[in-house]
Amino acid sequence: MPTDPVGGDLGERLARVSAEVADAARVAGRRPDEITTIVVTKFHPAGLVRSLHAVGVRDVGENRHQEAQVKSSELDDLEGLNWHFVGQLQSKKARQARRYASAVHSLDRVSVVDALAVDDGSLIDGFVQVNLTDDPGRGGVAPGDVDALAERIASTPGLRLRGVMAVAPLDEPARPAFARLRAVSDRVRSIEPGAGDISAGMSGDFAEAIAEGATHLRIGTAITGMRPSAR
Fold first, then answer.
1. Could you tell me if residue 95 is inside a domain?
2. What CATH number should be reported for the domain holding residue 129?
3. If 163 and its partner were Cys, which of 53, 100, 157, 197 is the partner (CB 3.0–4.6 Å)?
4. Measured CA distances, 166 to 29, 45, 108, 112, 182 (Å)
5. Torsion of CA 71, 72, 75, 81, to 10 degrees
6. Does 93 reside within a domain?
7. What SS3 class is residue 211?
8. Model-level pTM?
9. Are the C-beta atoms of 191 and 154 separated by less than 8 Å?
């Protein structure tokens, strides 16, 4: 197994994070099996994803369509591997992303939602990305605009509304931000009762996200090690 400056080999890092996730869940009065850890593998080679699969990982995340498309094609022999798209998706690439993604965590525009629509009986999961800052340049929908987009996703053929997603702001503690996301999640669940999932928490703040109800964590460096430079 590869080693790197984060400490330990891949299996050791995965075990360490899994134990920390379980501890955080118990502190929050939750069951660890309620939480899905998505290992974010952006910029890492396909070989790392293959190694992750070998140690039991079944959910991986990518944030660039071209990279995800290439890796998923190269690794299509891996049984049970779920690809989660967690970056900004262009409308013109959305239909292609359906071919490999089991979920898109970054739905923030009607144009992308409409581009993902199909009526062939297939379904992928969709999360509304919520902007938890006052900066309109950040990815995501303003909290006040979430309901309309959630309703659009829920009524779009080929999409299953699963819940909400957000990245914690850099200029405030993570937990209050995730508490706001939880409140938005409650509204979305009133629109679609089955859409109670919350995609939140990364390597540095997943314990806070779990405390506020996160069901899907997006963890990269803490498991994969130091990220290579973008290619």
1. no
2. 3.20.20.10
3. 197
4. 22, 26, 11, 17, 10
5. 130
6. no
7. helix
8. 0.94
9. yes
Q: Which residues, 6+ apart, have CB-to-CB distance to 61 below 8 Å?
A: 38, 39, 40, 41, 42, 83, 84, 85, 86, 105, 218, 220
| Tokens coding 194 | 């089955």
- The amino acid at residue 181 is L
pLDDT digits (tens, 9 = 90+) for 8-63: 699 999 999 999 999 999 999 999 999 999 999 999 999 999 999 999 999 999 99
Contact 124/160 with Cβ under 8 angstroms? yes
Domain count of the chain?
1
Residue 83 pairs in a beta bridge with 60, 101
Could you tell me which residues come within 8 angstroms of residue 54 by beta carbon, excluding any fewer than 6 positions away? Answer: none
Residue 40 CA to residue 49 CA, distance in Å, equals 10
End-to-end, the C-alpha distance of the chain in Å comes to 23
Distance from the Cα of residue 194 to its chain's centroid: 18
Does residue 2 sit within a domain? no
Q: CA-to-CA distance for 33 and 13, rounded, in angstroms?
A: 19
Burial bucket for residue 137 (CB in 10 Å: 0-12, 13-18, 19+): exposed
Structural domain for 29, as ranges: 10-88+100-224
Length of the chain equals: 231
